[in-house]
Amino acid sequence: xxxxxxxxxxxxxxxxFPSSHAEPFIGVNIGQVADNLPPPSETVKLLKSSSxxxxxxxxxxxxxxxxxxxxxxxxxxxxxxxxIPYLAADPNAxxxxxxxxxxxxxxxxxxxLINIGNEVLMSNDPNxxxxxxxxxxNVQKALEAASLGGKIKVSTVHSMTVLxxxxxxxxxxxxxxxxxxxxxxxxxxxxxxxxxTINPYPFFAYRGDTRPETLAFCLFQPNPGRVDGxxxxxxxxxxxxxxxxxxxxxxxxxxEKVEIVVAETGWPSRGDPNEVGPSVDNAKAYNxxxxxxxxxxxxxxxxxxxxVDTYIFALYDENLxxxxxxxxxxxxxxxxxxxxxxxxxxxxxxxxxxxxSQTPSxxxxxxxxxxxxxxxxxxxxxxxxxxxxxxxxxxxxxxPGGACFEPNNVASHAAFAMNMYFxxxxxxxxxxxxxxxxxxxxxxxxxxxxxxxxxxGGAGSTxxxxxxxxxxxxxxxxxxxxxxxxxSSLSFLLIFVVSLIFHVNM
Length: 506
Description:
Strand content: 5-15%
Number of strands: 16
Structural class: alpha/beta
Distance between the termini: 14 Å
Strand order of the largest sheet: 1-2-3-4-5-8-11-14
Number of helices: 16
């Protein structure tokens, strides 16, 4: 009996530690304003071949929801703006909506969130704005009546224009015209544990400031960074700055504990001649570096140590969307299921589930290894890490469970990524520069089971990495990394439980 109790305790303890292979924060939008989309069954095969863990639908298409049954992929569904008046006016209408769009599929199809409307506060329709919260409340009550309260959340999606101030991020605040409509919604989200969903697009920010350094800032590429004068924090990419501005806005009205979810973000691969920014290279850089940034789990400066759930726009191009050509060119994949470009979503493209037990391989032809320079800041190294992992190298070994994941800090992960990029390049000194944050060393940075390709002149010493390994002994909260001490704590708990078992049976 005692053994059964202790093993039950052990299972409870283990359940509090996330799977080392899960990447539940990466999602994708599936738009349907097109006449050439593949059948849902083919879309599901594509999703299962990728590291995408969640999908967002703009409606509640039963064919797609049903096709996703049994996959474990989280599903966000939506009620359109046109549905809001009748959902708000009649609780029975909300119940009927749940009966039609949720109950026939759940739980086989893993519906996790229902968005009521899209960017309603920016609609300039005061009646619709006033009806939004009652519609959300009625849908919530319908879920509770079906014993699904808490299992499926209810929210609504906002554009970044809901903010009146966003630069610097610490000054983030909601626009005066939005605050009245937001007050009740934020209280609803707080009471139900539902997320505040937002659509940040660095692409649109770049269109308003087309300097080269702004493009690099938007694409997660090496750049001088931008300092928030209020906090002294140096931001190295626009995505973090925009998300932290939303966090600051929530904090300014007393709701900083409400979770933020990025409902849409992306970059178009083509556009009209007069459009600034669309290109395959830029789309690959933004989405690829964003995915690498999310996988690093460094978080944002104001919300470190956890990646924000992010839904990339979009899985496919939508050939019937109105507007400039860029509106029809956000797809990560073509409708024939081939990649529009490699953004690192394939399970074989640096996925931790595919590479976690492998050390990197590479042709050893260089005269040394590329590692961070002394004095390089965590912000600079994070930018270099994101950029390097977005260039097609295998960053799987520095994902959770990988041979080079520990020590889990920015300096160690950046050292691995910098060197992998250097070894795959022509190996000129300029390939180990990373905006003057890296240098070539003749000392082998490999350690334990983490092997760095390179050298060519002998094994050398393993002293270079000692400072990164040693820094693991320190509290690593400053750089936003998850403390490796958590694994030591788990080991201690395992030893404690086993010792109790033997003590009871002696």
